[in-house]
Fold:
Amino acid sequence: MQHFLTKVKQPKNCTLVKTPFSMKKLILCSCFLLVTMTHSSQNISGLELLNKAINYHDPNNKWPSFNGQLSITSEIPERTSRYSAIEINLPNEFFQVITKRDSISTQMTVDKNHCAFALNNSKIISEEDTEKYNLNCKRANLYKNYYTYLYGLPMKLKDVGTNIHPKVEKKTFKGKDYLVLKVSYDESVGNDIWYFYFDPKTYAMEIYRFYKTDNNGNQKNDSGEYILLTEEKLINGIKMPKNRAWFYNKNDKLLGVDILN
Structure:
């Protein structure tokens, strides 16, 4: 893994010619500034990288007051597509997801600490169907956390309990160079280790991957998944990835694609 800090060499175009002293001084100063700027950009810290990425995706700080709808099509190999209509209102602590697959429609709502459910537009649900379709508060909050996390990235990396590693690494993935941010979490939040890949010029988030850990907190390299992000949609002033393609880390097997309609 190549360290991001590279040896600084004097640019070839900085060779001095016989000019007045003041011109020599100006050329030297310009060359020094050029090298210093390059050197500085290569030493970006984890927090600096995160701030630049947030400035790209959410330049007007819209996420904390997000109140909007998402329409998502999930394409899964060898299964019929799933359609999800999602409403997220962060100020009012409201979340709702209506999911349709084949002839079945489920609705899960979390309104502050209250949960509500519907099956095929009916709030009268048998105990058998409640269990069959996992219509419970634990499941509803899982969906709430899942969607607000993924579609709130990279802004969600500012949440309490998130540990941003200070060292930024430069990695190549599928032929493209990235600035990579490592993220871990307090034990009360989660045990997975995440890596976020950002375009080195625009700071757009283009890939993220996560790994499970063993009982000692060590990363299990044959676990977890990576997610390729392509295209963007502007939702309430936030640049969100349109397509998320999920793959296993261990064998690159495609798990599915989430499409933001």
User: Anything to note?
Assistant: Residues 45-60+161-254 form one domain. The chain has two domains: 45-60+161-254, 67-150. Confidence is low (pLDDT under 50) at residues 1-21, 26-41. The longest helix spans residues 21-42.
